[in-house]
Amino acid sequence: MLVPAIVLLATILVLVVLYVLDDALGTLQERIGHARKGGLSWSKRITWMLLALVVAQFFLPSDILDPKAPAPEPLPQAATFDPDSFWSGPDTTRLAFLDDERENLIRYGRELIANTAHYIGPNGTVMQNTNALNCQNCHLDAGTKPWGNNYGAVWSTYPKIRARSGKLETVAKRVNDCVERSLNGTALDSTGREMRAIIAYMEWLGTGIARDQKPKGSGIVELAFLDRAADPQRGEQVFEVKCVSCHGKDGQGMLKADGVTALYPPLWGPLSYNKGAGLYRLSRFAGYVKANMPQGATYLSPQLTDAEAWDVAAYVNAQPRPERDLTGDWPDISKKPVDHPFGPYADPFPEQQHKFGPFGPIASYYKKP
Length: 369
Ligand code: HEC
Ligand code: HEC
Fold this sequence. Notes:
By secondary structure, the chain is mainly alpha-helical.
């Protein structure tokens, strides 16, 4: 742009000089008694043409002399997963094809999932609200890991009626459930930038997934029930061998050098999820851990047997953690999942069995016509 601009200025300068000279010449001719003749008119015409050319090139496409490069194919904002393989989220490079405002909002949502505590944790930069956990500690790889409690089925299934609240729940309501329970905080303002960003991210994750469709590997894997109760004592042994190295003998994990976010998140105690959280249900914990823990495990290469997963779940969930008033939950008690650890129940089984199992008999009780 610089060179053409200089040429433009130079041309204008030459024109001005030509006009001044021409005028001077004319005046001179008059003085010596000749009639005015457009002495420099050809020079002026040529310079005008040059000026027109210089101006015109500003409006020509800059690559007019380049060999024709194919225009970049706009990538569709559609997930290319096929229903037979694991869903692992759309490609983030596709975000570049959205308008900037939308792209920024989605990226902020993803960032909030990955580094929640940094923004809204105990020393958060946006607000001080939640515990030490990041959403991503439980929803791995920003909610895209197959069987890593991912968000593959969120946009396609919400709003939906959930038995826990007995109400139609929007994505915002469901996100706030985790904020209030898993993150032991207070609900985010559903019109605030943080919630709008998280929702935008969920919507983007859901591109290409039809209504009510659940991509393969979304959520938490369901383990078969043990035919005995899960055993906290055996679980403690599993914990010693397979979990202590990162989560610590006291289950408190380890903070990063910033002192704000967790390198290894706490599994119980004041900074962990409260008793209303999903992981406080044994089946959720066992399924999550089976496909994802110790860190590095996947659904296809697990490192625990099913029994170890159930037992370690029993051990961890027998430890102290924040309480939560759950009196509003499960308005229809017959809809409680078999492993909901708090009565009353619409069945004769004791609370202890709902907490640790065996769950098979409870499940069959509800299956009876
Ligand atoms: C301590 C672990 C934990 C943390 C931290 C956590 N969640 Fe969750 N979340 C869960 C569990 C467990 C479920 C229930 C999964 C199930 O029942 O299959 C869940 C479910 C969800 C769902 C519904 C998924 C579905 O397919 O129905 C959404 C949405 C969600 N969480 C969002 C969030 C967001 C956003 C954050 C951070 C603000 C967060 N969660 C933090 C454990 C956690
Ligand atoms: C090599 C280190 C390592 C080992 C060993 C390990 N974890 Fe984890 N665990 C992590 C990390 C890191 C996260 C957070 C994952 C993330 O943010 O991507 C995590 C997250 C979790 C979470 C969800 C977040 C929370 O704090 O509630 C649970 C539950 C969990 N681990 C249980 C276990 C259990 C049970 C074992 C033993 C069977 C275990 N982990 C072994 C590193 C480990």
